[in-house]
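INFO batch 0412 | record 1 of 1 | parsing
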Amino acid sequence: MIKSSREVNVGKNGHVKGSIETQRLVVQGFIEGTVNAKSVEIKAGGHVSGEITSSELIIESKGIFEGNSIVKDTTAPKSVLGKIKD
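INFO prediction complete | emitting tokens
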């Protein structure tokens, strides 16, 4: 597991297999696993395979994302989220 309170950058030759938890993630290489971040940016040539939980997901042209995306809602209070399910 990679955990950071700031930013994680996976470079062009980088390969991560596992989970990443950070504020901001920039992907230029390959990630296989789960990501939990406020902001995720998949650059051209970047590849994420797995599950992303984030408030913001940006995929540039030629970036690849295979898997599930879960959107964190940071604007709605928890009491409202429970009522939405009705």
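INFO post-check: The beta strands are 2-3, 7-10, 15-27, 30-42, 47-59, 64-71.
INFO record closed
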